[in-house]
Design goal:
Layout lengths: L11 E7 L3 H12 L4 E5 L7 H4 L3 E2 L8 H5 L1 H7 L3 H18 L10 E5 L2 H15 L6 E4 H7 L9 E5 L3 E2 L2 H14 L3 E4 L3 E6 L5 E5 L2 E10 L5 H7 L3 E2 L3 E11 L7 E4 L5 E4 L4 E9 L1 E2 L6 E2 L2 H14 L8 E10 L7 E4 L6 E5 L4 H16 L17 E2 L3
Parallel strand pairs: 1-2, 1-11, 2-8, 4-14, 11-21
Antiparallel strand pairs: 3-7, 4-6, 5-6, 9-10, 10-11, 12-22, 13-16, 13-19, 14-15, 15-16, 17-18, 20-21
The structure holds flavin-adenine dinucleotide.
The site of flavin-adenine dinucleotide (FAD) has 41 residues, from helix 1, strand 2, helix 2, strand 13 and strand 19.
Length: 395
Amino acid sequence: MASLTCPQLDESADVVVVGGGITGCAIAYRLASEGFGAVVLDKRQLYTQASNSNAGNIHQQIIPGSVFEKNGWPWVETFAKTISYNVEAGQEWVNLGEQLDVDIDFKMVGGIVVAETAEDMAMLERKISLERRYGGTSEMVDAAQLRALAPYVSERCVGGSFCAEEGRANPHKAVAALARAARGKGAKFLSGVEVADVRDDVMGGQVVVTDSGAIRARHVVFACGAESDTLLKRIGYQLNNPRRAIQTMVTEAVSPFMHRLFYHARRRITMKQVANGNVIIGGGWPAQHGTQEDYTRTLSESISGAAAIAQDVVPRVGDLSLLRAWASVIAQPVDGLPVVGRVPGKENCWVVIPNNNGFTLAPVLSRMIVEMLQEKRSSSDPSLFDPARAAVAMT
Ligand SMILES: Cc1cc2nc3c(=O)[nH]c(=O)nc-3n(C[C@H](O)[C@H](O)[C@H](O)COP(=O)(O)OP(=O)(O)OC[C@H]3O[C@@H](n4cnc5c(N)ncnc54)[C@H](O)[C@@H]3O)c2cc1C
């Protein structure tokens, strides 16, 4: 067994959380609030990966754009089941800043989806009726209602839909606030500590082997985002969990004109204006992910593609200077559902890998895993996210 004498690491912890992104920080906050001694280990600086790069949208609805054409209706029907979890998450976000005693720039601004054609409108009607089965609250709006909600949209927009229960928060402030609150309740965070393996301890529990020594833990929670596969494979759990590099960009700050989240029924775009006036433009445009783990690069065709749609549907955006684009990697579970629960065959090992709504879902997925670890009955049904469904035979 590896040495347990590294000065950075305690000898033992109730729970070791591997990964200090928003998922790991939210889990540490929940654990510490429940009286667990939690230690979060991250091989880099804390929250520098997807959790530092996201657009900060708190989604309720299925993000439309090209998702329907790309994945097909059966995939969308399964994915729609996550709506009820998004609804719960939205409710948790409402109070999160107050709970953490930090202004995280949260606003429930609502989200509009614009349609340019009758086919777009028909698709939105179908999407909304599916979402309503799982608690979705979007409604169709005609052209006049759309303009009342969003006067800045192009004349070509013939109507769309509106979901009042969608919002935004500042991802940097939110994740830092979760970590700070967790620390305040006794959780420990160590950056620059890579977990290489997790073994069964002869004394019961687990031994977490790192490049800085080892630490014993009653439980281990894996919250490694897009890199989950590598470590989980070491403990015999191979996931069908491809990763995907995506990019986002931001314009100069201007006085407020766009108050809501913005989506298009068919075209790949999400937009919103944040608290300090910048417009964030995203929509899951592809970026490049190199063979080296930390290498991501924005693609100029994604920048020009997103910019073209953005100014086409919101002409005012065409007057704004683009400041910066950036990319990061997200986990992309093939069925679009998060992976949350006990690692198959491992009594004390747990995993949380969000889907593409990992910022939105962090308050709910963290609560679910801490309830599971306590063997409490969860108010949110975890069976949909069962890790066993995402396992593939070891090669
Ligand atoms: C461009 C972009 C825009 C997005 N926009 C939104 C949005 O608007 N709304 C939304 O809901 N979601 C959005 N997302 C998705 C969201 O950001 C992610 O789902 C979420 O941040 C994932 O958080 P995480 O903590 O699980 O993973 P990460 O933030 O990736 O954190 C995982 C951590 O684990 C660490 N780690 C990995 N392996 C090890 C190891 N062996 N030992 C120690 N540490 C390890 C890593 O260093 C990393 O810090 C977006 C993502 C991107 C990239």
